[in-house]
Design goal:
Elements: H1 2-48, E1 64-66, H2 73-90, E2 93-99, H3 107-118, E3 128-134, E4 139-145, H4 154-170, H5 174-193, H6 214-238, E5 261-262, E6 275-283
Parallel strand pairs: 1-2, 2-3
Antiparallel strand pairs: 1-5, 3-4, 4-6
Length: 284
């Protein structure tokens, strides 16, 4: 009996040790795989979430400068055409600017400095307007030149932002919200100058904008799929299935915002308009 026990007990201990090592190996592989997945996701984040706003040009290439890439090409063309016609018929200049992030300054300071840098509006008329949207900061600003402050008072623009922009922006429909707000402003300016501008009331959406809230859901689904793959492999090994899960393919989210673009129908040239901080800001 002693000889039998001396043979069996070491075998049992060796088996338990092998099982323990196997479990530790599986656990280590799981956490290594999870760590690698997080590294891959971190490499994709700069494209989708942490994109840095490109430097502002010295002069806007058009009336629509979409550095955040949230306005479709078709919609940019419609906006550019409308704002060019507005300038031709009234001399008033309006520029739409979208950026990823303010990267430091508050939106009031940023928009005022940008409007003065680009000299939006005509000299001595000061009839310029800069419409800024900072997507990641969830902020917007209407910067109004001296000459338009009575036509576009702060209260009117504040109401426009809350009632028109915010509902669209909360749904991720940035292009549609920008078009709708721009159309309203152009209609007001057209009435003030006594001109007719076709198309301001028909700035309908071309297509739905990308929903930025999907990023977290996609990451969760990818993480879940990866964990299932690891578990499947370890399960098959523990039960003698060396064939296991055959590799599998994981599709990682990519793309993100795009480089952005700007409308261009002959370019834009500021006329030297002045600004004094009038306008309205808001968020969503």
């Amino acid at each position: 009996m002693m000889n039998l026990n001396s043979c069996i007990l070491p075998s049992i201990r060796q088996l338990n040790g092998s099982v323990t090592m196997s479990m530790q190996w599986t656990t280590n592989r799981f956490f290594c795989g999870l760590f690698l997945l997080l590294l891959v996701f971190a490499a994709l984040v700069p494209q989708a979430v942490m994109a840095v706003t490109p430097p502002l040009p010295d002069n806007p290439p058009g009336h629509v400068v979409d550095l955040a890439g949230v306005i479709s090409t078709r919609r940019q063309q419609d906006l550019e055409r409308l704002l060019t016609t507005l300038e031709q018929k009234t001399t008033a200049q309006m520029v739409v600017l979208t950026i990823e992030s303010l990267d430091g300054p508050d939106i009031n300071s940023f928009s005022l400095q940008t409007a003065e840098k680009w000299k939006i509006g005509q000299k001595k008329k000061d009839n310029g307007l800069l419409f800024v949207v900072a997507v990641r900061d969830r902020k917007y600003r209407f910067e109004v030149g001296y000459g338009l402050e009575s036509v576009l008072p702060d209260s009117l623009l504040g109401s426009l932002g809350r009632k028109v922009l915010v509902p669209y922006f909360r749904q991720g429909q940035y292009g549609r919200g920008i078009s709708a707000a721009t159309g309203k402003i152009v209609q007001i300016l057209a009435r003030h100058y006594g001109v007719t501008l076709a198309g301001a009331e028909h700035l309908a959406p071309v297509r739905k904008q990308r929903n930025q809230g999907l990023g977290g859901l996609v990451f969760f689904l990818v993480l879940l799929a990866f964990m299932l793959i690891i578990y499947s492999r370890s399960f098959n090994r523990r039960h003698g299935g060396r064939g296991g899960y055959g590799g599998g393919t994981i599709i990682y989210p990519g793309g993100g915002w795009g480089g952005g673009s700007s409308g261009g129908f002959g370019g834009f040239s500021g006329g030297g308009g002045g600004f004094g901080g009038g306008g309205a800001s808001g968020g969503w």
